[in-house]
Amino acid sequence: MAAKALSFDVGDYVVYPKHGVGRVIELQKEQIAGMELELYVLRFEKERMTLRVPTNKAEGVGMRKLSSNKTLEEAVETLKGKPKVKRTMWSRRAQEYEAKINSGDLVSIAEVTRDLFRADDQPEQSYSERQIFEAASSRLARELAAMEETDEPSALKKILRILNEAAPRHAKVEG
């Protein structure tokens, strides 16, 4: 059985693992090195970036449609979970967090967001922890916003509300 290549239509929101949520704005055919290539033209508004992805390479680079509602529910449950604090060196953890964010996997991004979240009554974060938290929560918020047809700030508020509601429960367990 031949695997059917992923197909996206103009106007579809897609997730490109390294850049997050973009929108297919055009399908192009281009002559490159004597070969005709069909390309998805993706627009990432937040980064003000346009990316061209050959249609036959879309699956290989991990480009996908927005997550299913089931995956979104799993990501929200992950946010409500107890943060996992690893005792390894920060540089090693930072690499792991970056890899999870760039995987494009919504649940992995939710894990990073949860693990690096700090409620107002918790100790300050380092600059690099804050940067990674913001990258993860922004990536999560953009996909949530696209799925719920809202904007990123509203989606981010929802994520932070979930995290803030969960934080006291986990603090009591530890204290």
Automatic annotation (TrEMBL):
Q: Name one GO biological process term.
A: rRNA transcription
Q: What is the lineage of its organism?
A: Bacteria, Pseudomonadati, Pseudomonadota, Alphaproteobacteria, Sphingomonadales
Which residues, by range, are in coiled-coil regions?
A: none
Domain CarD-like/TRCF RNAP-interacting as annotated: residue spans: 7-117
Task: Quote the Gene3D superfamilies the UniProt record gives.
Answer: 2.40.10.170, CarD-like, C-terminal domain
Q: What is this protein called?
A: CarD family transcriptional regulator
| Family matches, as InterPro entries | CarD-like/TRCF_RID, CarD-like/TRCF_RID_sf, CarD-like_C, CarD-like_regulator, CarD_C
One of the Pfam families matching this protein, by short name:
CarD_C
